[in-house]
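can u pls check wat happens w/ DP6
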Amino acid sequence: MMETHFIPNSYSNNLENGQYSWQAPSNIALVKYWGKYGEQLPKNASVSFTLSNCNTKTTLSFEARTLEGFDFEVYLDGKREIGFEPKILKFFERVEVYLPFLKDYKFKIETSNSFPHSSGIASSASGMSALALCLMSIERSLRESEMTDEYFSQKASFLARLGSGSACRSIEGDLIVWGEHSAIDKSSNLFGTKYPLVVHENFKNYQDTILLVDKGEKQVSSTVGHDLMHNHPFAEERFRQAEENLSKLIPIFESGDLSAFIEIVESEALSLHAMMLTSLPYFVLMKPNTLEIINRIWAFRLKSGSKICFTLDAGANVHVLFPEGEKKLVSEFITQELAQFCKNGEFIEDQVGFGAKKI
Ligand code: DP6
């Protein structure tokens, strides 16, 4: 499939004004996306759990206009947030060819996150996905009769990707693949697709408790980090490793082998950070408490036989992953032993979710 698949023919309906609202979840990658080319295309395939409680709600209001250029305002929790506008402008410029109505309206984008803004949890995945879905609702109204649900979700994911790569994995659930992989039918670099193969009961309702180690702004943005994969001495090997890890996960998802799952997921998290440690300029996003938590998780696993494990995204926070059946055991461990390493003792209990909802 090509990008041109998402360029619409003319619209048949007229809309003077209106508004749409979507709630879109965050996601946590098991095999990481780190390195891109062209227009937001991934250097390797990735796979993620869609989350549930960590989400963004966005209302997009629109009113017809006849002026030149883009016209929009962004509000976060009811307050104008001009800091977000350059990113949205870039997004509008990128997607205009796929959404030719963008300059016909004045937009108000009202957004709020279920997690605190300063939690260090990236809102770009859930935020871009919620906005892309609102825009797709407008497109659907403009050419109502011809759009299937499959096209709607696929194009929403395609657009979200152009806002932030990992956002394309935040439209549906519960396990989403982004990036072409030879063993995964219909996987694409252009949008996320549902993982199509067998998934064992062990992975149903998987839990993710996010330990908020560092709640500040990221020192190095993901965009800068991705760029540093160009000319990175280990880049090609890393992309190969990620492809292979995804291949290895296929039989693991099928058999429910949690020990094998843990090994891949933790290795992916540490490999991601190893890329940061070995880029030029090099940087470290883990904090002392990140390492303390990792060591405590390892010790607890050894002692208790629990299938708890961790993963990291591009920051210091730790995602603690475990099967639903261990909820009581692991929650106690987190409260008693890990919470002390979080800023103000804060963590967010989440679990696998099933995708965005229209509200
Ligand atoms: C470490 O999707 O935030 O979370 O495409 O530049 O917006 P941009 O980057 P982004 O990168 C996410 C990187 C990651 C790994 C992952 O989610 O796969």
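Residues 7 and 99 are 7 Å apart (CA to CA).
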